[in-house]
Amino acid sequence: MVTRVIESYSPDMPDTPISYQYIRKTIGERGGKQLILTEIKNFEVGDILSSTQYVYNKVGAGSLSHTIITVYETYEIENLMTQRMEVFRKVIDGKIRTISRIFEVEPETSREYTSEIVTYRELINNTFATVSQTFDPFVSSIDPISTQKTYYDERSTTSQSDPTRVVRVVENYEFKIDVPILTQYIYYDTRVTASGTSRVVQVIENIVDVDGAAFRESVQYVYHELETPARLLKITETHMGDFDAGDTFLTQLQKEYWEMRNGKPTRVSEFYEAGMDTPVSMQYGYKEAGERNGKQVLITVIETKEFGLDQPVSVQKTWKNIERMADPINGGIKKKALVTHVENYEVDLTNPLSIQLTWRRRENVNRVV
User: Fold this and answer.
1) Could you read off the pLDDT of 134-171 as tens digits, one per residue?
2) Residue 262: which region, alpha, beta or left (left: phi > 0; alpha: psi -120 to 50)?
3) How many CB atoms lie within 10 A of CB 247?
4) Three-class SS of residue 318?
5) Cα–Cα nearest to 270, from 250, 255, 258
6) DSSP 8-class letter at 249
């Protein structure tokens, strides 16, 4: 058996991989048939296995009966599929589009996808952009709930050494809004970090529209540091202020890394305030299998701790299900929706203090302009 190893590096840390993959071919059974599967094991620094994927091809059915579909099965917990994605290509309006259908609720057997991502290329400012539209099948199959356009262009930035440069531009749109709610300029530059060290970082400039004018809401520096051989830190600094005048300040520093906690791969996030060496709070995020309403579900757990306390001050557990929901205000006909259940725990970590249900529903509203 031959295993291919892929190591991923970041320009800010060219000598140390930030993650790696083991890829090999294996034989498995799907739908009663023996198939060749591509097994992909994703590791974080410290030999922490964060997820396993199995990839294979199948022939579609019905309207896709002459289409080759690539299936991606993701396991974040052993023996529990957490997501299935089916990807195929289709010609729509003379353009080749890549369609990715994502199954999150009972992904092993479900025929109802919970979201659909349509990706294609289009010409913007004399350069090709990658357009990614996300559809909620329970809301609309025509209008995407969000759209992202990514392309390279020359823009004016906050860089002192090379202010006008080619950057990666990411425009984010929401449902039926024609102007981007957030535009990002992403590039690498040498900056002075919170520690006073000058180094290469990834710069993310977050730009919002205010009364028709572009306003830099914040600028983030993202870089990596190897704390120990088994712990790689991803550090994100958020700066705000008057970037034109150079009057800016650090509002938050966040450190992220992976560790094994109680046998589970856990993403740890530490939050620091300006001038402090000790985190004011920490979050531990992991996945676990659980049962809700008689079904086995994937639960995303986030534990929040504060400095000086041994026990979490709050725990949030999130899981999803497809249900029929009525308008909570006006009632009426129940419609299918992807419902996210959020359980919030505080003092009593065995019984939720509150439970939130969120879902999308399309409605006609009168707007005052």
Assistant:
1) 999 999 999 999 999 999 999 999 999 999 999 999 99
2) left
3) 8
4) strand
5) 255
6) E
Number of neighbouring beta carbons within 10 Å of residue 170: 19
Q: Tell me: the pLDDT tens digits for 35-63?
A: 999 999 999 998 999 999 999 999 998 88
Q: What are phi and psi of 63, to 5 degrees?
A: -70, -15
The answer, yes or no, to whether residue 110 has pLDDT greater than 90, is yes
What is residue 248's three-state secondary structure? strand
Provide the pLDDT for residue 368: 43
Of 267, 261, 295, nearest in space to 104 by CA: 295
pLDDT one-digit tens code per residue, 188-228: 999 999 999 999 999 999 999 888 888 999 999 999 999 98
pTM: 0.90
Helix, strand, coil share (%) of the chain residues, nearest 5: 0, 70, 30
Which amino acid appears at position 128 of this protein?
F
3-state secondary structure of 197: coil
Of 39, 35, 101, nearest to 67 by C-alpha is 101
Structure tokens at 355: 């439970």
Q: Both tokens of residue 106? A: 């009972």
Instruction: State the amino acid at position 313 in one-letter form.
Output: V
CA angle 115, 50, 296 (to 5 degrees): 55
User: Tokens 């034109």 map to which residue?
Assistant: 244
Tokens encoding 208: 């919002």
Phi (first) and psi of residue 159, to 5 degrees: -65, 135
Strand partners, 204: 186, 220
